Amino acid sequence: MTVLVFLDPAHPAGRLADAASPTILATDQGVTRGDGIFESLLAIDGVPRKIQAHLDRFAVSANTMSLEIPAAKVWQAAITTALQAYAGATDQAVVKLVATRGPEGANTASAWVQVSEISPKLAQQRAQGLDVIFLERGYDSQIAARAPWLLMGAKTLSYALNMAALRYAHQQGADDVIFTSSDGLVLEGPTSSVLLAHITDEFGAPIKRLITPHLDTGILPGTTQGALFAAAKSAGWELGYGPVAPADLLDADAVWLISSLRLLAPVNTIDGTEIGTPKIRAELSTELGELLAKTL
């Protein structure tokens, strides 16, 4: 079941629409040009998770795109309407917020909330882990500062490149991708943030350290990564942001791809090289997964 609720000034709580009927004009620039933004968040038992973090990131994307969108409280009302109308088969659902620049010649954005069932494949990836490959994104790590018109760090509808990367990975027998910059730094996955962990330092002494690539590389700020970092800090983990090279991932005790819908999925291999050991990956995934669950 899919529920659509359009943000409409005539309907303060949002306007329900039939998801099986045409609702978007063929001239909408979100369709013809990918000129728009979106957010995807998880709802559990009808309650949206990390909603403020997603609305804040949504607003940043809109500002980066010079796109006027409804206020946060209007989105919240539409989300409530959509979740109340949703009757899915599981206790988890995907809530997607979409805003486009609207039809050609219009001055008003098209905006809607979509609620649908979460893919069972995501739970499978959390349980079984992923085999991933490195792919170069084609930009250096300083491009965001030099070329703001590339919209690095904004969550836009222009996901053709990301989907092409995933198809290429599947053709190579892999599950997912970790992008690298042309100057040799780790960036992010097509739909996820990257984390790595060390449980011993360079002298073999025990530590608990989580690291993620620095946002200055133009990657999307991860809401789930941020929530996990806050929980891990309270639990005594050391946290690090900084330049991460592919060799750092291969040398880690564990690596994960993390996102709002997938949550924490361990990486089993990168380019065929095993990361850590199955025992360590499982133990760390359980520990961090429990910390993350407390934030949901």
Describe the structure.
The protein is of the alpha+beta class and 296 residues long. The chain has two domains: 3-118, 2-Layer Sandwich (D-amino Acid Aminotransferase, Chain A, domain 1); 123-293, Alpha-Beta Barrel (D-amino Acid Aminotransferase, Chain A, domain 2), CATH 3.20.10. Helices cover 30% and strands 30% of the residues. It is built from nine helices and 14 strands. The protein has helices spanning 29-32, 51-64, 72-85, 120-128, 143-146, 160-171, 223-234, 246-250, 278-293; strands at 3-8, 11-17, 36-44, 47-48, 92-100, 110-117, 130-136, 176-180, 193-200, 206-213, 238-242, 254-259, 263-270, 273-274. Strands 7, 8, 9, 10, 11, 12, 13 and 14 form an eight-stranded mixed β-sheet that branches. A six-stranded antiparallel β-sheet has the order 2-1-6-5-3-4. Helix 7 links the parallel strand 10 (206-213) and strand 11 (238-242). The protein is globular, with a radius of gyration of 20 Å. The two termini are 23 Å apart. The mean pLDDT is 95.
